[in-house]
Amino acid sequence: MHTLLIHISNEEPILAEVEELPAAEAQVLYCMNPRRRDGKELHYILSEVQTIILPWHRINFIEIMPSGEEEEIVSAFID
After folding, report:
1. CA nearest to 42, candidates 9, 65, 13, 5
2. Rg (Cα) of the chain, in Å, rounded?
3. Do the beta carbons of residue 2 and residue 17 sit within 8 Å?
C-alpha cells in the first residue's frame, strides 16, 4: 500500500492510498480513502465514498509519501 499526495488541477492536493503505483500506460488512477492533507473529508466527495477514479489529464503531479519503514531506514543513516 502506498500513500500519495495528488496534485489535481485547480484543486488543493489530496492524500489517498493505492495498492500499487500506476503503470506508465495507465489512463486513470484508482485511489482509496481520499482526504485533505489535514485528514478532513473532501467537500466534493460524499462521506461514504471509499474509492475514487481520477483521470490523468486532471493530475499535475504525484508525490509518493514515505512509509514508516522508509523513514526508519533513512533516519538510521543521518548523523
Report:
1. 13
2. 14
3. yes
Q: Output the pTM of the full model.
A: 0.75
Residue with cell 514508516: 68
Report the distance separating Cα 20 and Cα 64, nearest Å. 11
Residue 63's nearest CA partner among 24, 9, 1, 16 is 16
Average pLDDT over residues 62-78: 62
How many other C-beta atoms lie within 10 A of the C-beta of residue 51? Answer: 11
**Beta strands, E only, 1-79:** 2-8, 14-18, 28-36, 51-55, 59-64
Cell matching residue 72:
526508519
Residue found by looking up cell 486513470 in the block? 28
Domains annotated for the chain, with CATH where assigned, are: 2-76 (2.30.30.100)
